[in-house]
């Protein structure tokens, strides 16, 4: 079933009202609950023949009886339901209406499973052969605990047998083998000598740095996709390697794509290769050559006079500083409008732009930030320009002070804000400009503040700025004087404190702990504030019973914490605390097995990555759903990883898929 409205409509036909908003229920996930119903050794509590004329009525009656006896129906009649084809991703909280028909509406899919809100009882309905089976299970939590304990008592012999079973029986489908390759690529325990043997078409195999000779081989591989993916993902490709791989392409489109990739990555390409590409028969290849790092200035000048408009439009920017007067005049009079527009901006960075040129040539507003403007034009735009023109003009550092003051009183909030971030203002002038922090706007770091990070006096002055963006820029400095750190650590803008936690080595412990309560890391600084050198490491066990789950999980970072505390917190009511326990190396095998069925996917994934996870469970993941995560588990024996790689390459070798090694 598709969207929410369709689901509500279907459940309504079954006589069920959806209760509350969708949520992750803190019980056994429905896909694991189904095992109690469809497993080969599952015993039916009641079996109803498909030949019965009153089949639907009998199933509804038996389900209701069993659900009532088992305690699936709560005191208020609310319970959880899931059925194949619902596409809900889990349980739906529902209540029976006066008239209902679960078997008639949901039983055709086929079957359904229901569970109590506390997760301790379930009743499922499913077909097998010539009957419909109803399975009632009570004490689900105790059963799960016992199953986890049994799994955790895995002997060395049982573990060895489990690993051996991975390579017996039916061969894994190609999709599973591909997941193995992707997972092993990210496995920190994968031996170095096995990494080059991974199939190169796996999702992640090329992202780690490979030996130079392996990279050479991949860049010369007969398969274009292998060459392109290697160039697009492999770090540390040398200028010479870039030159070789681009020039070796006979296909014009492939040569263009590689040259464009090198330009986008701003990598250096060997000078000789740049010269060859600048003379390429393809205009779009020459256009990409014009922006390559390593292009000689003399070649850029030649490309600025290229017969193709698109090549000149790119090359003019690179060539401009190296052109003589005649070359610049030629570009200013270029027959192509795009070339003229770009060159005009370059020209007027040094030569004042008169109003006549601005009006006649329809100069883009963005040029007003960098161009030198005649007074008449600048004043006209400051007073009568549209909002976009005034906004760019407000960032022009060569604007006369009186016009800056005029724009500081602009009726538009954005224009005034732009003025307030200028580096040439005094802090008194900046404070006089009314600006407001908009929580819905993404603000970028001020480059001029960044350039002053090494100037302690400047940092001291700017840390007292009334402008939050200036103070945020100061907080980005790696080192700051103690008094500046103290001031910023108490800043009313909590983003200032966050940036101090992420960037400054001098951030104080109490502030780091305060920031941790609402921030656990970004993509650019995933380990801050918790990974900061000054983050508290002692006296954290006292937070084990703190009402804030973010503080409770810190208890496991304390050297005085114990395996018993890990076990206790692995049962915490908060999923983020359970997640922290699932990543702890002291977690027991039984606890890892239990968390493998946690209601929350990120906790289940952490359990699947735990090196103490029983081999039997890990093998089950490797042979089906969860294969990629399981292949990342650092507890995989080296010999098992070696055999997995051999299995993948044997299949690829037979199917003609490329491999390395």
Supply the key terms.
mainly alpha, Leucine-rich Repeat Variant, 6% strand, seven-stranded antiparallel beta sheet, 38 helices, 4 domains, single chain, disordered C terminus, 661 residues
Explain this structure to me?
- There is one protein chain.
- The chain is mainly α.
- The protein folds into 4 domains: 4-138, no CATH class; 156-195 and 545-655, Leucine-rich Repeat Variant; 230-431, Alpha Horseshoe (Leucine-rich Repeat Variant), CATH 1.25.10; 447-536.
- The chain contains 38 helices and 7 strands.
- A 7-stranded antiparallel β-sheet has the order 1-4-3-5-6-7-2.
- Helix 15 (297-303) packs antiparallel against helix 16 and helix 33 packs parallel to helix 35.
- The protein is globular.
- Mean pLDDT is 93; it is low at 654-661.
The average pLDDT score comes to 93
Low-confidence stretches: 654-661
State the helical fraction. Answer: 40-55%
How many strands? 7
- Total DSSP helices: 38
Radius of gyration: 33 Å
Structural class: mainly alpha
Give the DSSP E fraction (strand runs of 2 or more residues). 5-15%
Q: Could you give the order of strands across the largest sheet?
A: 1-4-3-5-6-7-2
CATH class of the largest domain: Mainly Alpha
What would the principal axes of the Cα set say about the shape? globular
Q: Under CATH, the topology of the largest domain is which?
A: Leucine-rich Repeat Variant
Distance between the termini: 46 Å
What characterizes the major β-sheet? 7 strands, antiparallel
Q: How many separate structural domains?
A: 4
- Architecture of the largest domain, CATH level 2? Alpha Horseshoe
């Amino acid at each position: 079933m598709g969207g929410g409205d369709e689901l509500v409509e279907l459940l309504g036909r079954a006589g069920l009202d959806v209760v509350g908003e969708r949520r992750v229920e803190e019980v056994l996930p429905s896909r694991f609950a189904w095992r109690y119903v469809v497993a080969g050794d599952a015993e039916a509590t009641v079996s109803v023949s498909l030949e019965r004329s009153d089949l639907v009525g009998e199933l509804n009656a038996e389900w209701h009886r069993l659900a009532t006896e088992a305690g699936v129906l709560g005191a208020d009649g609310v319970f959880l339901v899931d059925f194949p084809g619902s596409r809900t991703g889990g349980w739906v909280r529902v209540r029976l209406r006066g008239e209902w028909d679960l078997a008639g509406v949901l039983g055709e899919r086929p079957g359904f499973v229901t569970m109590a809100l506390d997760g301790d009882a379930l009743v499922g309905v499913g077909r097998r052969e010539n009957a419909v089976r109803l399975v009632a299970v009570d004490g689900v939590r105790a059963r799960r605990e016992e199953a986890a304990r049994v799994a955790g008592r895995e002997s060395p012999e049982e573990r060895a047998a489990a690993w051996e079973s991975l390579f017996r029986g039916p061969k894994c489908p190609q999709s599973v083998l591909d997941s193995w390759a992707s997972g092993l690529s990210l496995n920190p325990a994968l031996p170095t000598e096995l990494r080059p043997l991974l199939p190169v078409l796996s999702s992640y195999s090329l992202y780690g740095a490979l030996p130079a000779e392996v990279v050479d081989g991949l860049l010369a591989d007969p398969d274009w996709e292998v060459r392109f993916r290697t160039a697009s993902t492999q770090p540390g490709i040398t200028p010479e390697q870039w030159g070789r791989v681009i020039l070796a392409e006979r296909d014009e489109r492939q040569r263009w794509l590689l040259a464009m990739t090198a330009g986008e990555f701003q990598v250096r390409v060997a000078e000789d290769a740049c010269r060859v590409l600048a003379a390429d028969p393809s205009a779009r290849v020459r256009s990409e050559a014009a922006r390559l790092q390593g292009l000689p200035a003399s070649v850029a000048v030649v490309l600025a006079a290229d017969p193709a408009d698109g090549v000149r439009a790119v090359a003019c920017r690179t060539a401009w500083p190296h052109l003589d007067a005649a070359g610049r005049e030629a570009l200013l009079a270029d027959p192509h409008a795009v070339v003229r527009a770009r060159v005009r901006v370059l020209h007027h960075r040094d030569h004042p732009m008169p109003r006549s040129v601005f009006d006649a040539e329809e100069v883009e507003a963005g040029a007003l930030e960098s161009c030198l403007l005649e007074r008449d034009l600048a004043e006209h735009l400051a007073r009568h320009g549209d909002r976009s023109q005034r906004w760019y003009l407000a960032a022009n550092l060569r604007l006369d002070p009186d016009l800056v003051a005029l724009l500081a009183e602009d009726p538009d909030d954005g224009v005034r804000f732009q003025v307030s971030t200028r580096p040439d203002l005094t802090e008194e002038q900046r404070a006089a400009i009314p600006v407001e922090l908009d929580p819905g706007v993404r603000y970028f770091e001020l480059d001029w503040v960044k350039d002053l990070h090494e100037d302690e006096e400047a940092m001291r002055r700017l840390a007292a700025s009334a402008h939050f963006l200036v103070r945020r820029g100061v907080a980005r400095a790696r080192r700051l004087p103690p008094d500046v750190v103290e001031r910023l650590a108490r800043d009313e803008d909590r983003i200032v404190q966050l940036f101090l936690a992420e960037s400054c080595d001098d951030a104080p412990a109490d502030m780091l702990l305060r920031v941790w309560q609402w921030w656990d890391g970004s993509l650019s600084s995933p380990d801050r504030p918790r990974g900061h050198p000054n983050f508290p490491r002692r006296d954290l066990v006292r937070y084990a019973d703190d009402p804030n789950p973010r503080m409770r999980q810190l208890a496991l970072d304390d050297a005085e914490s114990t395996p018993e505390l890990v076990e206790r917190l692995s049962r915490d009511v908060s999923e983020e605390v359970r997640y922290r326990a699932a990543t702890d190396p002291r977690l027991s095998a039984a606890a890892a097995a239990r968390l493998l069925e946690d209601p929350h996917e990120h906790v289940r994934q952490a359990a699947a990555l735990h090196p103490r996870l029983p081999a039997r469970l890990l093998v089950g993941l490797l042979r089906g759903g969860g294969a990629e995560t399981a292949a990342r588990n650092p507890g995989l024996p080296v010999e098992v990883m070696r055999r997995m790689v051999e299995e993948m390459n044997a299949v690829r070798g037979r199917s003609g898929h490329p491999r390395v090694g």
